[in-house]
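DM from R.C. (forwarded with permission)

"hey, sorry to bug you on a friday — could you get me a structure for this? deadline for the figure draft is monday and I only need the backbone to look sensible"
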Amino acid sequence: MNLSDRKEFIEILKSVVPESIETLIDRYRILRLISYFGPIGRRTLSTKLEITERVARKEANVLKEKNLVDFTLEGMVTSQKGEECLLTLKEIIHDLKGISVIEEELARILKIKKVVLVESEDDELYRKELGRRASEELKKIIKSSSVLGLTGGSTVYNLVKEFKKGKGNYEDMIVIPARGGVGSQISYQANTLVEKLAGKLGAKYKILYTPDFLSKSSIETLKNEPSIKEILELVDNIDTLVFGIGKADVMASRRNINSERIDYMIGQGAVSEAFGYYFNEDGEVVYEISTIGIELEKFKSMKNIVAVAAGEDKADAIRSISKINENLILVTDKSTGMKILSKVND
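My reply, with the result:
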């Protein structure tokens, strides 16, 4: 169902059964929570939704009668029919809340392919939703023969964690790090995420055994190492990319760049970072570090790219990165999207 058809359907709903809209939204929230946290008990469900346990029990029973959830000894879980229902309802609920309109407006003003917004009053659910929506966008663009590049970071971590393999066969796909690692948390490192996502896809993968920050002489030496040379050739052939967007000052600190250099790049107008490049508000490079990984010119020419970024403090960073490649699919949260809109309208 396209956006026009959904709008027509919603207008019919509002005209014929306006009292059902609120019930639909409430049951969607319940079904979504069970999907993300199942198996889940009624007490936990009621706490997360801030409703009484009696109401949670009543609504759960309705969903069970409709074969949308199953009751197990461990708690409630969504059925296959329930998962399919969630996929269908997701776009309708977005339309009912006016989120689809905001997404279209953001894509228009940022001049990028698509914007996906998530919203949630629960922090844990919010992270899961962000990861799942990003993973759904990724599944739409990967192919069985794709060379898929990943960067590290918490938002890409959430994508990998929530990724659920579809019906495709990805034995010929290869998943690789788009660059070296950042920070000390192993679970967020690109190499770790590459291995986990490849495992879920049943795909092949390669690991890039290099630090993130290297001297130019070290890079030239490493490029001649057979294992590094092999993966760099694959990096040049990446056709699908998933990455996170960082604030310039935050990412510089994580890389232990000294305060004088940080002050310099901020003085040059740096607001965002990706792949070791620091960009100003116009998407122009104002600083870069020596690293092994995807080159900027490669990124600019790519057709299939998904960026995951969240937090109102990243509004300027997102606007900056959006100016580099119009094929970008951006997954972020509603509050950040509204922040971007407010900045544009100021």
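R.C.: lifesaver. DSSP finds 16 helices and 13 strands in the chain.
me: no worries. Residues 123-141 form the longest helix (19 residues).
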